[in-house]
Structure formats: structure tokens, C-alpha cells
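User: Can you predict the 3D structure for this chain?
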Amino acid sequence: MARLPTHDLYALLGVPTDADAATIQRAWKAKIRQLHPDSQPEHQQAQAHEQAVKLNQARDILTDTLRRADYDLDRRARQRAAGTRSTSPPRREPPPSPPPPPPLRRIVVEPLVVDFGAVVVGQRAPDRRVTVRTNNGSALSQVAVLSHWGRFWTNDQYEDGRDVTEFVACFRGRQITANLEPGQHIDWVQIEVEGERVRVELTITVAAAPPPRPAEPQPAAEPAGAFARTGWTYSARTRWVTVVAMMAVFLAVILGVSGVHLGGGTTPAEPAPRPTAAAPTQASGTATATPNTTAAGAPYCQVTSVMDGSTAYYATVPGTTTPTSDQPVWTMAPPSNDPYWTWKSAAFPFWERINKRDGFSQGGQLYRAGTYVELHVILEEPWERLSPELLQKYPGLDAGAEAAARAQFIQEWSRELGVPRCE
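Assistant: Here is the predicted structure, written as C-alpha cells:
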């Protein structure tokens, strides 16, 4: 390998140590043009020629990648040994690139459409899950499921998730009854994440139950007893029994005509008159059974939730405790010591409460039982007094539906305290 020059090639060309090949080529041209023989006096032409040779060498080495790398390595080694710095212009180091910005934090809810699949009437829908997290793995300060019951699903997660990196909402499938018509059914639930609500759609396809298979005919049972041990066929035994029976009847007719009485010839006693059944009597002072205290006469049945203590009342098929629909007529809030009855109905699906005893005072005014009514229209808002102003504030409220639902509740609910549980 040719010996590398010891002088500074970068300083000779007047370029920085990180100059590229194009920069070096332009610097070489500018320098070599100054050393052209026509522009030099005769006594300096030899010196100009020697300088031109060095410029050509510098260009050749610095534009060759491998030779330049060898030269740079040798140059740095000589600088360390001499303890001196190069007199060439300093190499410009590129500024450090800024760190990439962190990804924007966003809430991820998967899936947004929950499919329970195809379920046959009479079977239970499968369980499904919805996962709530962030895209960067940061903690969620608050997550809550806002609905807990549907026509084909339930959810018993009443506690909010606090400071969790992942929240899993479990939706348990219910048994599909004949009240759900065959076809696709769509429901939805809201999940609140850090104050924002996300809507998740729940779908199921209900298939009709297959018709029952006709019962296969069972072979007639062979008569047991002594005939079974004889080895006769069934038809032969039948003929033999028929003959014996006819002979017994014929003998009885002959004895009857001749006046012969079995049992010593005495006249048989007249049969005792058959006793007649006495009509059932009702004890005086006994109260008659009130409606809805037995399964046979209850137009309603009840289901108490083990999750929140609320009680739902369903209309029943006459004479049974089977609900006619998955939709309750009304739902009662869990019993408490406050002076209210609290309920909501299918006809007016807003929580409503009414004072349940006399002497109730509110705002310095005394109300009789059942005269102070409040509504809970929006989840985040407090209870509000039922008034014309409230109905104007929420145009979606139907005053007629509210009045009819409240009248039904007052007239019927107190009589349904003892209704049986739904089957």
C-alpha cells in the first residue's frame, strides 16, 4: 500500500473534514485554476507545479472512500501522538435529532359490536367480554358499565374500575325464551370511561326450537303370569281365555234361570245404599283467599335481583307463574328506610318516587301520602319535583304516560306484595 501523506489534505483544499465528494471536487478546481502555468511567473512555475501535484493527490485520496478512511484513521493517530489539533476547519457535527413525540392517548374498546351468535329458543346465550384499555398502556382512572340487564344478557359489575390498565366487562347470556321471536335482535349498552360514554352494540340471532319428534310406537306388552310360562303365543292365550269366560257366563245364566243361589240358597241381601259426598262447608269468619296469593290466580310474578336488590314484576300467563314477556310491568328499587316508594315502568321508563306515609314535609310544606312525586330523568341530575315546569324542561316526557303508569302502580302494586316468584 502506498504511503499516506503526512500533511493535512483537508487544510490543503480548504474544506471541512466532513465535506462530501462534490464539495472536494469544487474546491480542487478552484485551487488548481489559480496554479495554471499561464498565470504564474517563470521563476514560480516549478513551485506551482509541486503544489498542483499535492492538490491532485488530495483530491484523489479524499474522493476515494477506502483511501479516505485509511487517511482519516492515520491522521487521527498522528494527532493523538503529537497532542496537537488539526489546523483544518473543524468538522461540523449534525445536531441530535429530537425524540419522537409520544403517541396521543386514546381509549380503545374492543369489540364495539358484540355478537352472541345464533341461539335456539330454550338454550342459554353464551357469555361475551368487552375489553377497555388505552393505546399506550396508561392507567384508566375510572370505568363503569351503566346498564346491567337486557333481553338476552346481564351484567353484574356494579363497582367502578379505578386506576386500572385494563377493564374487562363480562356480559352473561340469558336463557332464550319463546317471547323472543326468531330473527336478529339488537340491544346496546353504554360504558363510561373517564367521563366519556362509549356505546357498545349487542346482537343475537334467535332460532326457533325444532318441532318435537313423534313418539315411536311401543310394542304391546306380553301378559305375565302362568300363561307366560306355557310358551303359548299371545293369540292362542287370548282364544283360550275367551272360551273360558264364555263358559262361565253360560253357567251363570243357567243357574240364574233355575233359581239356584250360590251360598246356601238364601236370598242375597240388598246392597247398602251408596253414601253421598257431603258438600264442603266454609267455616264462618274465614277470610277468602286474596288475588295473586297463589300461582293459579296471580296475574303477576316477581323476580328479585341478587345483584342490586331491585324487584321486577312481570305479567303472567293466566293460571301460571310464567312471564308473558321479558319486559317487566314495573321495577321496584331495593327497600330502604327513606320515606319513598321508588319504581319505573315499561310505559314510562324513568325512575319515579312518591312519599309513602303521612306527615311528609318537603320545602316547609306538608304532604299527605302519595301526593309528593319526583322524577329522575337524567342519571347525572338529582331528583326533580314533578311539575308543569319539569315537563316543559324535558319535552320528551309524556305526561299522559306518566299519569297512567303512576295510577296503575298505586292501584295494583300494594296488592301484589305476595305474588309468587316467576318460573
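Confidence is low (pLDDT under 50) at residues 224-234, 257-296. Residues 300-416 form one domain.
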